[in-house]
Structure formats: C-alpha cells, structure tokens
Design brief:
Shape: globular
Structural class: mainly alpha
Radius of gyration: 20 Å
Helix content: over 70%
Largest sheet: none
Length: 209
C-alpha cells in the first residue's frame, strides 16, 4: 500500500522503515497476543515431556502475521505474490489451529492440508512459468488469456473451500468468514485484505462459537 504512494527515490528509506515497523509490530503482537497462544499439554512420548506443560505454542503465527502485514504495506504486490502470502499464512494458520485444538489433528488431516497448499503454490507458479518456457510468442487468443488469468484464483477457491468448513474450530466460524469474505469481495476489496479479514473472523468465530 505505502509502496504506491511513495516516490521510488525513497526506496532505501522505506526499506529501513519496513524493518523498524516489523520489529515494532512483532513486539506489540507478542505483548498483546501471548495470552491467546495455545498451551502445551505435555508430550507423553517425549523425554521430560511433563516439563513443557503450560508453555505457549504456535508463536510462529505471530511472526508470519508480522511478515504478511509488512509485505502488504511495503512491497509491490502482484496477484501471484498475494497468493503466495496467503498460502504461507494458511500453512502457519493450520499449525496454529492444530495446536489450539482440544485433540491433536491426525497426520492424515495435516498431510492433506499441506498437500493442498503445496499443490496451490505449484499451480500458481506453473501457470506463470509454462507459457514463458513453452510458448515463445505472445498469446493473443482471448479465451486462453482469460483462462490463464483466472486459473490461480479458481484453484485457490476450489481447494480451500472444504477447509473453510472443516479446518476451523467450528463449521459456523468458517461459514461466517466465508460470507464476510464474499461480501467484502463484492464491495471491491482486494484479495489480500479479504483474506486477512476472513482469517481474523474465523479465529474470533472459533472463540465465540
């Protein structure tokens, strides 16, 4: 966002400001969010696992959120980079929800989520790279250009929709985030703010419901 309103001659200054912002945001997020982090319940098969009881877990969510917000404010984001940021945030969010769950997620569920995120990242990358490597001439066909433009968004939607209902603390929280996301997108908000807002709504919905 800030990238678009600052002259390019201030790039070095903005890079330094972004570092200071990330540092301050991390400190504030840790101070405000440390009590919201899930607690370790102990590990039955780990050596001295009982000593870890009560320690906070999932702190990586704070750092990834800091990284995502900093990129949104200070980086020139393309549609592809926005998708990558969402996938990074989704990967960390899945781990956070696993830590927060009353009973740990099974390896199958976690593996399927990781696989879905990996496939979405691969599809997004290949959609951009394959035409560059296999097609040397500009694509003029309107249908093909439209297809290549919308495939990443369609893939992201199709592969994440089941997780909207299944991966959240309660299906109602996921449905609420979905409805809010559709409304915000219909009002013209960009992909990144809609994704961030939906993550927050899903988390708060899980706490309420």
């Amino acid at each position: 966002m800030i990238y678009y309103i600052v002259n390019e001659s201030f790039t070095n200054i903005m890079a330094f400001v972004s570092i200071l912002f990330a540092f301050a945001f991390t400190i504030a997020a840790i101070a405000l969010g440390k009590n919201l982090l899930p607690r370790d319940a102990g590990r039955a098969y780990a050596i001295n696992g009982s000593k870890s009881v009560g320690k906070p877990r999932g702190a990586g969510m704070i750092f990834i959120l800091t990284f995502t917000v900093t990129c949104a404010l200070f980086v020139n984001l393309s549609a592809e980079l926005i998708i990558y940021l969402i996938l990074v945030l989704a990967a960390m969010l899945s781990g956070y929800l696993d830590d927060s769950a009353s009973s740990p997620w099974g390896n199958l569920k976690k593996g399927l989520i990781d696989l879905a995120i990996s496939v979405m990242a691969a599809v997004t990358y290949l959609i951009r790279m394959l035409p560059l490597t296999l097609i040397r001439k500009p694509i003029k066909n309107r249908f093909i250009r439209s297809f290549l433009y919308y495939v990443p968004y369609v893939t992201l939607a199709v592969m994440t929709f089941p997780a909207i209902i299944d991966a959240t603390a309660t299906p109602l929280a996921g449905a609420l985030a979905l409805i809010a996301g559709i409304f915000m997108a219909w009002k013209g908000l960009g992909l990144f703010p809609v994704a961030i807002a939906c993550c927050i709504i899903a988390y708060l919905g899980g706490l309420i419901f």
